[in-house]
């Protein structure tokens, strides 16, 4: 039976302030063996960066990198955000890490054009709209896995409007069917209306069929929606509206769209969420991957307030206040996410990025520079395949560099 020998050295280290030198007899070697059949299970818990480094050790790791079941199992075990894409006010993209053990390979090509738009990231996949040039009326919808250097172009949406609207929103729903390792997913793609402001155009892409299964106009209320961070819970997609006072009625709201019944529901913000400025912002998020929630940033009070959405059987939805966080004045962008330690709120004052840990109750600066952070997109470091027709990146057309890929 094949196996691998692993050696671990243990011993004492110098005391703080003392000599760091350790006597030879203070170290002891502990050797143990892993059965070859256990290796895929053990290493499926590693982030993509750590796994690729282990490929230098043995051919077995190269074999695992082509094992689709292993790739999906690894994606199922690595769901925490390891970093964030961000976009600045000039249209450039960047990337910063929050997990030193994960990351995107430094050799990843300078891939995104200035005219491209990163729409969403989920399960280690990045979905983006590729345009050949500014004003391109027929942009392509693509997906890539930066860690594996793979990509795939998706079929063109049936709507002739796709690529012509100023805004596109994409929500990602993985289809498990009782199997945590399935690679199938659905994209709920919403495009901004150009003619009738009361209706949004909605298309649903099914990766299993490699086709668009829904193409219709839906009523999501009279207000403009926050397109950047929709969330999916079960079969329902949630978007938050804007808070601008150009409409006296209705008040800001969250809209829910059931992808099965095609019904929409307008959920008013909680009464306790006092929106007293056009600069206030509401966003939707997922708490611990299971509970939709509302995040309200109050500009005048410089506070974030979280409200959990709860539904009683056959009853109307109810908001339950859970957290109130003192923040900084003027926050143009924020997103709710989670890393290996728990839930995070990542936000920016413009030129600096911060994360608030709900576990520790503390904020820390995680990014700074001359770029203006106006959009955050969480990324997880997985080996998930892009699809059955994925190809490895060669040297795509290079224009200007947008992403600072690196470990």
Radius of gyration: 23 Å
CATH topology of the largest domain: Neuraminidase
Count the domains: 2
As a percent range, the share of helical residues equals under 10%
CATH C-level class of the largest domain: Mainly Beta
Q: Report strand order across the widest sheet.
A: 5-6-7-8-26
- As residue ranges, the low-confidence spans are 11-27, 395-407
Task: Tell the overall outline.
Answer: globular
What is the chain-wise order of helices and strands?
EEHHHHEEEEEEEEEEEEEEEEEEEEEEEE
Percentage beta strand: 35-45%
Measure the end-to-end span: 36 Å
- What is the structural class? mainly beta
| Count of runs of 4 or more consecutive helical residues | 4
Quantity of strands, as a count: 26
Q: What is the level-2 CATH architecture name of the largest domain?
A: 6 Propeller
Main pleated sheet: 5 strands, antiparallel
Mean pLDDT, rounded to whole units? 82
What is the CATH superfamily label of the largest domain? TolB, C-terminal domain
Textual characterization of the structure:
The model is unreliable at 11-27 and 395-407 (pLDDT under 50). It contains four helices and 26 strands. It starts with a strand and ends in a 15-residue tail after the last strand. The protein folds into two domains: 3-11 and 24-72, no CATH class; 73-392, TolB, C-terminal domain (Neuraminidase, 6 Propeller), CATH 2.120.10.30. The chain has helices at 39-43, 48-54, 59-64, 68-77, and strands spanning 3-11, 27-35, 83-87, 93-97, 117-122, 125-130, 140-145, 150-153, 168-174, 185-191, 199-206, 211-219, 231-233, 236-240, 253-258, 264-268, 281-287, 291-298, 303-311, 317-326, 333-339, 342-348, 352-357, 362-368, 375-379, 391-392. The chain is 7% helix and 41% strand. The protein is mostly beta strands. It has a five-stranded antiparallel sheet, with no helix packed on it. Strands 9-10-11-12 form a four-stranded antiparallel sheet, with no helix packed on it. A four-stranded antiparallel sheet has the order 13-14-15-16, with no helix packed on it.
């Amino acid at each position: 039976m094949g196996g691998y020998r692993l050696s671990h050295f243990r011993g004492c280290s110098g005391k703080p302030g003392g000599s760091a030198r350790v006597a030879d007899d203070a170290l002891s070697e502990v050797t143990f063996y892993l059965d070859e059949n256990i290796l895929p299970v053990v290493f499926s818990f590693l982030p993509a960066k750590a796994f690729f480094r282990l490929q230098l050790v043995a051919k077995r790791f190269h074999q695992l990198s082509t094992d689709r079941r292993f790739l999906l199992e690894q994606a199922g075990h690595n769901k925490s955000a390891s970093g964030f894409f961000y976009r600045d006010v000039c249209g450039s993209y960047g990337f910063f890490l929050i997990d030193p053990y994960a990351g995107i390979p430094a050799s990843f090509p300078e891939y995104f054009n200035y005219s491209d738009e990163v729409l969403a990231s989920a399960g280690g996949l990045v979905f983006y709209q590729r345009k050949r040039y500014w004003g391109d009326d027929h942009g392509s919808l693509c997906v890539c896995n930066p860690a594996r250097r793979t990509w795939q172009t998706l079929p063109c949406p049936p709507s002739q409007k796709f690529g012509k609207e100023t805004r596109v929103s994409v929500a990602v729903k993985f289809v498990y069917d009782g199997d945590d390792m399935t690679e199938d997913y659905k994209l709920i793609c919403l495009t901004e209306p150009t003619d009738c402001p009361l209706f949004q155009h909605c298309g649903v892409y099914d990766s299993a069929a490699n086709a668009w299964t829904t193409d219709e106009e839906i009523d999501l209320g009279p207000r403009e929606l926050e397109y950047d961070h929709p969330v999916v819970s079960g079969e329902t997609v949630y978007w938050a509206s804007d808070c601008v006072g150009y409409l006296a009625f209705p008040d800001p709201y969250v809209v829910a769209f059931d992808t099965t019944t095609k019904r929409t529901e307008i959920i008013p913000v909680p009464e306790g969420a006092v929106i007293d400025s056009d600069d206030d912002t509401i966003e939707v998020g997922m708490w611990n991957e299971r509970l939709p929630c509302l995040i309200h940033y109050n500009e005048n009070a410089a506070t974030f307030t979280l409200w959990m959405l709860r539904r009683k059987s056959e009853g109307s939805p109810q908001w339950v206040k859970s957290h109130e966080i003192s923040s900084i004045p003027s926050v143009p962008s924020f997103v709710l996410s989670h890393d290996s330690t728990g839930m995070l709120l990542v936000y920016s004052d413009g030129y600096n990025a911060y994360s608030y840990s709900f576990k520790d109750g503390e904020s820390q600066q995680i990014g700074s520079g001359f770029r203006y952070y106006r959009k955050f997109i969480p990324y997880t470091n997985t080996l998930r395949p892009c699809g059955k027709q994925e190809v490895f990146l060669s040297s795509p057309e290079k224009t200007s560099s947008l992403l600072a890929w690196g470990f």
